[in-house]
Amino acid sequence: HNKAKLFYLSGLIHGKYHKREVHNLARFISVMKFRPLSFGTTHPYVLADRFEDITPPEKVQMDKKCDRNVTIYGYLRGCNLKKGTKVHVAGVGDYGLAGITSLADPCPLPSAAKKKGLRDKEKLFYAPMSGVGDLLYDKDAVYININDHFVQFSNGADENGGTASKGKSQDVG
């Protein structure tokens, strides 16, 4: 396409792209002006960023091929979706919606005022399941990385039944 813009990403270092290159790409995307598409404005579509299987585990244990209940999270574009609307999931088939709920945007757009750059507060990043940030998803667990200066550790018991503490202790009274 003659108006396509190419971005050069020089490669991965320790499984991640260069910070400056990703920053430049994100900055360009955040200020883009999109042309409205006639199909897109008259038909709803969802950009899904994650899904959860909420089928009761007992039902799955009894029948591995049972019908599943799935919750899909993402961004709705175009017109609105309604409960009961038939949706097409690519590669899977057509299904009816049991319900739809609106959630707050985890990464809202910056204010409309013209600026040369973005403050740190406005540099929000939302990438579920990516391993970037403080959440790490494993096959069967979610790990949260918390900096030590945000955590208060409790005192542990020593061999004599007293409490052992880190740092200096003072005798009082």
TrEMBL record:
Swiss-Prot/TrEMBL GO biological process terms: endonucleolytic cleavage of tricistronic rRNA transcript (SSU-rRNA, 5.8S rRNA, LSU-rRNA); maturation of SSU-rRNA from tricistronic rRNA transcript (SSU-rRNA, 5.8S rRNA, LSU-rRNA)
Domain of life: Eukaryota
Annotated GO CC locations: 90S preribosome; nucleus
InterPro entries: AARP2CN (IPR012948), Bms1/Tsr1 (IPR039761)
Pfam families on file: AARP2CN
Domain AARP2CN residues, every copy: 21-107
GO molecular function: GTP binding; GTPase activity; U3 snoRNA binding
SMART domains linked to this entry: AARP2CN (SM00785)
Matching PANTHER family: RIBOSOME BIOGENESIS PROTEIN, RIBOSOME BIOGENESIS PROTEIN BMS1 HOMOLOG
Name of this chain's protein: AARP2CN domain-containing protein
Native organism: Opuntia streptacantha (Prickly pear cactus)
Organism phylogeny: Eukaryota, Viridiplantae, Streptophyta, Embryophyta, Tracheophyta
